[in-house]
Specification:
heterodimer; A: mainly alpha; Butyryl-CoA Dehydrogenase, subunit A, domain 3; 9 helices; globular; B: alpha+beta; Phosphorylase Kinase, domain 1; 2 domains; 8 helices; 47% helix
Chain lengths: 175, 259
């Protein structure tokens, strides 16, 4: 079990980030990571020792997150992204960055789960395509095509979002 | 030398810096002669950087205590509560009684996830009955807190703590003992300045491990339910889960720090 602590503990911050990005709620995301770690402890002896533990533990977290999101979406009133405090998403470095991050996170939230997850795993968690394929339990080709669609869609969502700059002219950056 | 045609996969791999040097050079050459593709690839790179930056602060946060891996492993090693042989003896005894008296093991309230679900249902049902009551929502009012603690502790057979939610804007109104399928439960009611009421519900889980917090919803009443050290807890109210969850975390924190 000390080997588990050595291999898994350094991954916990990244697990929190993935959970937070998907659930957009600090406490719910940390509960999910806790659940994930409990399961990982229970299944540690079943894992193949020759494989990187990163894809293995992200797969556990990913599956828990998908179950949780399905349950949330079947509820009468999901929490809108606007209701979520900025602190639940990320810590904006400045007002301008804060606005851009909010636009981005709300654009991300409009993507279907299968696109959102692949973007986060590849772009933010920097998993290889092979690792992402293991986490999502799909062939690498599917990872690639989802990633392509996800990038297109995110770009479109961001480009189509009217920027609130006109309402805050003092925030406009002069180039 | 003929080069393979540039595919969308190559452009993605270029954005993700997953190409070998040779292929990368071919993509760069292609982008130099295709400015509109280059522009899109640049935008995708910028969006990737923005995504990373937006979520980067999360990994810098100190880890909360409940995510301490060493502690979780330690907690697993420690045998929980009742020794196994005593549980086995109780089960044998109950089976014997069951054979004679037609009882069922349901009464054990074993803390499986099914046990948590039952607890959540009981809490929501009690909320539905007592929270709308204007005349007598509680049996013992908050002024007689000591009496309330003594009564509920005696009926539950173990000390019961009443969490303080004043810092979140909820005042204790009072409480009562209520009946469930699994024996007596303690109900504490809180309200805020707008008259919104919350119910904190607790009863023994008879046995079983600690259970992580789980949300539930029943007829528009949201709740968070968990089990710690043999007691099951549920915080329920007709408020959004996003409001309720931090309160449930606070309740759990207070109870754990008193234990």
């Amino acid at each position: 079990m000390t080997e588990m602590v050595r291999l898994i503990e350094p991954l916990i911050p990244a697990l929190r980030r993935y959970a937070r990005a998907l659930l957009r709620d600090r406490a719910a995301a940390d509960d999910l990571v806790q659940d994930c770690l409990e399961r990982a402890i229970g299944r540690w002896h079943q894992r193949r020792a020759d494989r990187e533990p990163r894809a293995w533990i992200f797969a556990i977290l990913h599956n828990l997150a998908m179950t949780r999101l399905r349950r949330i979406s079947s509820r009468p009133r999901p929490v809108a992204v606007e209701d979520v405090g900025e602190g639940d998403l990320a810590n904006p470095a400045s007002q301008e960055d804060g606005l851009r991050y909010r636009d981005l996170v709300s654009a991300l939230s409009r993507l279907p789960d299968e696109q959102r997850t692949v973007l986060l795993l590849v772009c933010v968690e920097e998993l290889s395509y092979a690792e992402a394929a293991r986490v999502l339990d799909v062939p690498i080709g599917t990872v690639m095509s989802r990633l392509s669609r996800a990038r297109e869609r995110l770009h479109k969502e961001i480009s189509d979002t009217p920027r609130p700059e006109s309402a805050h002219p003092h925030l406009r950056r002069v180039k | 030398m003929t080069t393979r045609p540039i595919a969308e996969d190559d452009l993605n791999a270029y954005v993700d810096e997953a190409l070998d040097a040779e292929r990368r050079a071919e993509v760069v050459a292609y982008l130099e002669t295709h400015p509109e593709v280059a522009e899109k690839v640049a935008a995708h790179r910028a969006e990737r950087d923005l995504l990373r930056a937006a979520f980067a602060p999360v990994v810098e946060e100190p880890l909360p205590p409940q995510l301490s891996l060493a502690r979780m492993i330690e907690a697993r090693r420690r045998p929980a509560g009742t020794p196994r042989w005593a549980m086995a003896a109780a089960a044998v005894l109950l089976l014997g009684v069951g054979a004679v008296g037609g009882w069922s093991l349901r009464g054990m309230g074993v803390a499986s996830s099914g046990g948590l679900q039952a607890l959540g249902r009981e809490a929501a049902a009690s909320y539905a009955v007592f929270a709308p009551d204007q005349a007598r929502p509680v049996e013992i009012r908050a002024e007689n807190r000591a009496q309330l603690v003594a009564w509920t502790s005696r009926r539950l057979g173990r000390p019961v703590a009443i969490p303080d939610l004043a810092s979140s804007g909820y005042r204790l109104m009072g409480g009562r003992v209520v009946a469930t399928e699994h024996g007596p439960a303690a109900l504490f009611m809180y309200d805020d300045d707008k008259g919104n009421r919350l119910v904190m519900f607790a009863r023994p889980m008879a046995s079983g491990p600690d259970m992580p917090m789980a949300p539930h919803v029943q007829d528009g009443i949201n709740g968070y339910t968990w089990a710690d050290d043999g007691l099951g807890y549920s915080l329920v109210g007709a408020v959004a889960p996003g409001m309720l969850h931090p309160l449930a975390d606070e309740v759990r924190r207070q109870i754990r720090s008193e234990a």
